[in-house]
Write a structure and sequence with these properties.
Layout: H1 2-13, E1 32-35, E2 43-44, E3 56-65, H2 71-77, E4 97-98, E5 101-108, E6 114-123, H3 127-131, E7 139-148, E8 154-159, E9 173-176, E10 179-184, E11 199-204, E12 209-213, E13 225-227, E14 230-235, E15 243-248, E16 254-259, E17 264-270, E18 273-278, E19 281-289
Parallel strand pairs: 1-8
Antiparallel strand pairs: 2-12, 3-19, 4-5, 5-6, 6-7, 7-8, 9-10, 10-11, 11-12, 13-14, 14-15, 15-16, 17-18, 18-19
């Protein structure tokens, strides 16, 4: 009688669970994480990535020496607004700390796509041996571009450690449409980084493809800007040649190289004019479309 009752009870309960065969399901809310490999510098993707064939070139309208310390007057005299900082409006609601680090940049393309760039910082063990002195740049930086949904929760994570080896930092990031433009540079002499610094890259956030990268010594830690189909960047440092570069936004092709007296410190576009503040010179350029 007892055996019959036990058998009926086992049939009602069903088969026992096999712990070894119980595979945990992935959390549906967990973001997709992808490490993006650096394809080389320079690099241009094939396929549907084509140059915009931009005819825009920079035409110099003004070059004059400044007083070095008259930056405030320069803003006022040219009726210029300060350039956008690392955070677009709305950043306060984004996660400030994540498994990928603390928030360094927040970008909103105005069409519903929001991206947080997060950074982790570590100590470089071999920094003193390589450079001979200790400074804040004895740190190493690990960045991740995190695509945030409308509730500002992480949905995709693109790890960019390959683009910032050793002492290279990300000093600026721009989001246009679905593409994140970012730099990789060292705030110091290029020789310390063995000339492997000053890169600009374009990451397609829809699929994690790198669309293009520039050669070295193109984008310094002073930032860059995007206007239409072109990117304006510059590179230079103390006792190094100083240049301004015009780059095709679609494919990374170098369109124009302009020598500057000293390296740019501020780039501001107002209408079709580009205002460039350097250490001891001011420039004004026109975005001139060649016919």
């Amino acid at each position: 009688m007892h055996c019959t009752a036990l058998l009926i009870g086992l049939l009602l309960l069903g088969p026992a669970e096999d712990p070894a065969g119980d595979v945990p399901r992935q959390d549906e809310g967990a973001p997709e994480v992808r490490a993006v490999a650096a394809p080389g510098f320079p690099f241009r993707a094939g396929g549907d990535v084509v140059c915009a064939a931009s005819k825009i070139r920079l035409k110099r309208l003004l070059r004059k020496q400044n007083q070095v310390t008259d930056t405030q007057e320069w803003y006022a005299n040219n009726d210029l607004a300060r350039p956008v900082g690392p955070m677009d409006p709305g950043w306060e609601a984004a996660p400030s700390e994540t498994p990928w680090g603390r928030l360094a940049f927040f970008r909103d393309n105005g069409s519903g796509l929001r991206v947080g760039v997060y950074v982790k910082m570590g100590q470089r063990v071999d920094a003193k041996d390589e450079k001979g002195f200790s400074s804040i740049y004895d740190k190493e930086f690990d960045y991740a571009a995190v695509v945030l949904d409308e509730e500002l929760k992480p949905r995709k994570v693109f790890q960019l450690a390959a683009f910032h080896p050793g002492i290279l930092e990300m000093s600026h990031a721009v989001l246009i449409d679905d593409v994140l433009y970012f730099d990789s540079n060292y705030n110091g002499y290029a020789s310390i980084a063995r000339e492997k610094t000053g890169y600009l890259s374009a990451l397609d956030l829809s699929d994690g493809r790198i669309l293009w990268t520039t050669k070295n010594l193109v984008a310094s830690f002073w930032g860059f800007l995007v206007h239409g189909d072109v990117v304006v960047a510059g590179y230079g440092f103390t006792a190094e040649p100083d240049y301004l570069y015009l780059i095709d936004r679609r494919c990374g092709k170098l369109l124009q190289t302009i020598r500057l007296k000293t390296a740019h410190e501020i780039l501001i576009r107002r209408g079709e004019r580009l205002y460039v503040r350097c250490y001891d010179h001011d420039y004004v350029f026109d975005f001139d479309e060649k016919r």
